[in-house]
Amino acid sequence: MEKGKTFMWAESIGILTHNQRVILGNTDSGEWIKISQECYHILQKVMQQQYTVQEVLNALQTEEDKVYMSDLIEKMFKLGVVTQSRQEKGEIPRYITFAITNRCNLRCKHCSVMAGDLPDALNLEGCKKVVEKILTLKPLQIVFTGGEPLLKKGIIQLLEYTRERFNGTIGIMTNGTLFTKENISKIIPLVDSIDISIDGIDEDTCALIRGQGVFSKVVNAVELIQEEGFKNISLSMVLTRENQPHTQEFYKLNQRLGTKPILRAFSPIGRGGVNRSELEIDRTEENLQESKIDNSDMKVCSCGALKRILYVDYSGNMFPCPVLFDKKYSMGNILEQKDLPYFFAEREIEKRSNYKSFLGLYPQNCSECKDCDVNLFCWSCLHHIDMLQKGIINKYPNCEARKRQLQNIIWEED
């Protein structure tokens, strides 16, 4: 903070008001501060009149007010809700997920992308061209997924091609059923992490979602991979009505196998929509009332989509993230962008109408949520807002009950 310069609200700021209080939140970091409405109006006025920090302090009459305002402005700078320079450059995504195929050997009941028998739009050379484009972003991580990536013809060559040109983290997300001793020995020198979907704790619970025999194949694959000295393996489970009661047993399974547990939320789209009545967890208001929101480290909700995260589908189309792949959120085809870093850094992406549709998912922008006095805290993923706007869900899960709980926490002093 330079006291001789003017200051302004940061681009990432979110603002909530309630009675005579105002919350200023950083929607990137999740940090926030609560101030009086009087103080907020003063800050608004001095920013509009372009006062420097020192001029603001000089205008205050008492030493106590000067100290308070100086400490407050300094804290707001540290939290990132104010800045002294407008951010000219856009953010470049550094964590890229590339779905190299939609084909899959399984027909999981919850699959949101309806992975199946669609022919590949990109051959090996096409996938290499996508990787070349991704590398211009100087990513930190590239994750290959599908469908089932091990069905992709030339998957080993694609991993080799990427590893030769990329020193960052390479991951692969797979159903784990197609691993063999032969392909494991070729794959593990080329990747840093392997994420295997299992969705159960034993043969029976896994079979309910993924089919008979999958559980034993996954466990066998984990053991074969570990025999080669590779340890960075995670097992993931999408929470459904059937497996949610077994969450603790899922953690124990991972402990026994020496893997890392990942829990994912169920989405009622794709085959998940077809099987929704069977799979969706009952989220009645009564159930929520019995649970308590952890307020020990309450954060403003944030989303890295199109900031830190980018999803590229099996045709090369770019989307905000792996769960927001509706055409209305497409940012164009990656192969058609001559200068991908320029597209993001120089904010060319913001000129697209689909980008405006994406911004409309943020609660402070969408008609259903913009007037709510806890909308910076209530959501866990913009995908929920997308489903709300499409009518897939009638209301954000447990909206009224969650709202009351959050109001009691974040506005508790009012």
Automatic annotation (TrEMBL):
Any keyword S-adenosyl-L-methionine? yes
- Is Nucleotide-binding a UniProt keyword of this protein? no
Instruction: Name the SMART domains on file.
Output: Elp3
- PROSITE patterns listed in its UniProt record: RADICAL_SAM (PS51918)
UniProt xrefs under Pfam families:
Radical_SAM, SPASM
Q: Which domain of life is it from?
A: Bacteria
What the entry lists under InterPro entries is as follows: 4Fe4S-binding_SPASM_dom (IPR023885), Aldolase_TIM (IPR013785), Elp3/MiaA/NifB-like_rSAM (IPR006638), Radical_SAM_PqqE_MftC-like (IPR050377), rSAM (IPR007197), rSAM_sf (IPR058240)
Kindly state which keywords UniProt assigns to this record, in alphabetical order: Iron, Iron-sulfur, Metal-binding, S-adenosyl-L-methionine
Domain Radical SAM core, chain residue ranges per copy = 88-297
A GO term, aspect molecular function: catalytic activity
Under the heading PANTHER family, the entry gives:
PQQA PEPTIDE CYCLASE, RADICAL SAM DOMAIN PROTEIN
* Protein name per its UniProtKB record: Molybdenum cofactor biosynthesis protein A
Organism listed in the record = Blautia wexlerae
